[in-house]
Input
Amino acid sequence: MTEQKCPFNPEDDGPQMRFDGRMSYSDYLSLDPILSAQNPVSDAHDEMLFIIQHQTSELWMRLAIHELRAARKLLLAGETRPAFKMLSRVARIFEQLNNAWDVLRTMTPSDYTTFRETLGQSSGFQSWQYRLVEFMVGNRNKAMLKPHAHREEYVGPLMAELQEPSLYDVALRALNAGGISVPDDVLNRDLSDAYHANDAVMQAWSVVYKDPSKYWELYELAEKLVDFEDYFRRWRFNHVTTVERIIGFKRGTGGTSGTSYLRKMLDVEIFPELWHLRTEL
Output
């Protein structure tokens, strides 16, 4: 006669099974409001994919902002090692954002047309968190405040960020503090203005790259910045490729020229000297 085995009882292995009056997984993560925030306007099947793609991207960008803010604070205090870990994490966040495009690309042009009109004028161009990431790392354009002017809770943090040194400004200060002269007009420039490539800055970074063992922390800082921009550029490229694959050359819902506008953004350099010096080495 075959012995009957009792079904597995998870309580025997120790996990809590009753949560009356206790914090649960859903409570800690506030899953109820998060999972009820997907509200398709149409009956189109793929609208849920579109919403979740963009909501999760905003969550990852929130983490990127958290990490960039902390890394900048540490670099200003001269604490480079923990800042490097945070910068590495930001690069991996953008790797995650890159992977998300693969899911969105499963949506065909026919799928998208079933609900595109329901988006109205909404567009990823209007993401204030994306704009904040750009401002934080050094790609600053005050004209880009305009899409957010109607929401003080958005434009306020963006304007405040323009008064802070960008991540690249902080890196240039570290370069100067490390004994490699950076021009005063670069170090003391108006922080809210767009940064422009400077030959003297490229020569300063070249000193680091020609003798990395002597300037190892500055060398590693430079490579962390390049690593981030590498993933950031891929994110932009994947963005334009996905848009072209789904809507071709139609205008964007937010009024931009669509793929032609996105292609222009591919030419924007965040840390220009760190890329240009490679030709000179």
